Amino acid sequence: MICTDKNCFSPETVRRLAVYLQNFERLIKNGVDVVSSGQISKLLNVSPEQFRKDLSYFGEFGKRGVGYQTESLVYELKKILGLNQAWQVALVGVGRLGCALLNSQDFSELNVRITAAFDSDKKNIDKTVNGIHIHDIINFKKIIKQKKIRICVISVPLDHAQAVTDLAVESGIEAILNFAPVILNVPENIHVSNMDIYCELERLIFFLNK
Amino acid sequence: MICTDKNCFSPETVRRLAVYLQNFERLIKNGVDVVSSGQISKLLNVSPEQFRKDLSYFGEFGKRGVGYQTESLVYELKKILGLNQAWQVALVGVGRLGCALLNSQDFSELNVRITAAFDSDKKNIDKTVNGIHIHDIINFKKIIKQKKIRICVISVPLDHAQAVTDLAVESGIEAILNFAPVILNVPENIHVSNMDIYCELERLIFFLNK
DNA sequence: AACTGTGAAGTTTTTCACAGCC
DNA sequence: GGCTGTGAAAAACTTCACAGTT
């Protein structure tokens, strides 16, 4: 549970807010000006009450009898999520997955961007992927401090994930997006999000089995 | 909430079971024979009661006064998750991410494996990645039926994700792991799991902002 | 003594239902 | 009439606390 001065809300609310933002941005691109919570509900598989309540923790953004204006809701969602400023992200491990992540970046979208990559393999160091320079991991702390980066993506092999995490924490990183299939050991003030493909597949298989 | 004939449990329980399995397999590799819920708790950031209760929905796997035998728990977890049989997975979209996923497969682990890949780009079709043949997407339905594949990974660009999903559903696919940043529209008997890197990063940023 | 398994209690999250506004 | 915002009720999920086993 997350509490501000005014309200308490579920961590799931935050996850959904990011989905709302993404989809409202697309609605704008598709020329949609106004949507109701009922329409959103069908689009995103979230109940209309859930959508309204998620937003209500942060203010009153809709118009009764009308719905939500897409443009202004995107503005508000960005403000809520902290995306009205630019965020730099570091990435460690420029293997196939790391490379795919570096290349997935769309430079028209400026809010969140991987701006520094690191590897330990001489073959990769000082190369450039999608305009991003790959540094020697030895210089991690120095560059993180210099660029004041607070978020790090870890896409190294399993065996190195904890060592990289320790280095990241020591360097002042506060949030980690981890692709290695392991639960990282971190101090409790550090936020970790795990993306584990095989766990997700296994979860799906469980549901197929009944 | 998921109910069997005996019990009802949270969908989160299933997600955690996959994490337990992964970590118990590593414990075995490290030569650990027996662990208590308290030790697991420290390792995985799950309360000991949570761990015990998650397992209790499926049987009694521990020994009072002792703990859990790693070997036998792995066996039980595989049985619970349905991993005591082989599962074939299809993948659509052999771009950088798709390629990384195909290459990430460890052939010593046999339970879940991507055995068919699909693309629409002539450049990729009939090539082989990590021993997996890339088929023309035109033959998707035929091959899925032939191989009796029930699970599909979608790693195509945003604009094609819904069309691929429709094709998958029409072909009899029952579970989808989706990497495209969009909520897919599917019939309600189809299971979808979304892995959205930018949503996760935005979630982390929210927490950094307070 | 140490640790599991589990009803019951407590907490969190979602849904309901309706007042309030366009 | 249609849709939002929100307390109150319901449902879901986690933790407690302790009986039971080795």
Strand segment count of chain A:
12
- Report how far the terminal alpha carbons of chain A are from each other: 32 Å
The biggest chain-chain interface is: A-B, 56 and 56 residues
Secondary-structure-based class of chain A equals alpha/beta
Helix count of chain A, per DSSP? 8
Instruction: Summarize the biggest pleated sheet of chain A.
Output: 7 strands, mixed
Structural Rg of chain A: 20 Å
The CATH homologous superfamily of the largest domain in chain A is named NAD(P)-binding Rossmann-like Domain
Provide a concise account of the structure shown:
With 210 residues, chain A is α/β, with parallel strands linked by helices.
Could you characterize the architecture of this molecule?
The structure is a homodimer of 210-residue chains. The first copy, chain A, is an alpha/beta fold and 210 residues long. Chain A folds into two domains: 2-81, Arc Repressor Mutant, subunit A (Orthogonal Bundle); 87-199, NAD(P)-binding Rossmann-like Domain (Rossmann fold). Helices cover 42% and strands 21% of the residues of chain A. Chain A contains eight helices and twelve strands. Chain A has helices at residues 11-29, 37-44, 48-56, 70-81, 96-103, 140-147, 158-170, 197-208; strands spanning 2-3, 8-9, 34-35, 62-63, 67-69, 87-92, 112-119, 128-129, 132-136, 151-154, 175-178, 191-194. In chain A, the strands form three sheets. The first copy, chain A, has a seven-stranded mixed sheet with strand order 8-9-7-6-10-11-12. In chain A, helix 1 (11-29) runs antiparallel to helix 4. Chains A and B meet through helix 1, helix 5, strand 11 and helix 8 of A and helix 1, helix 5, strand 10 and helix 8 of B. Chain A binds a DNA duplex (22 and 22 nucleotides) through strand 2, helix 3 and strand 4.
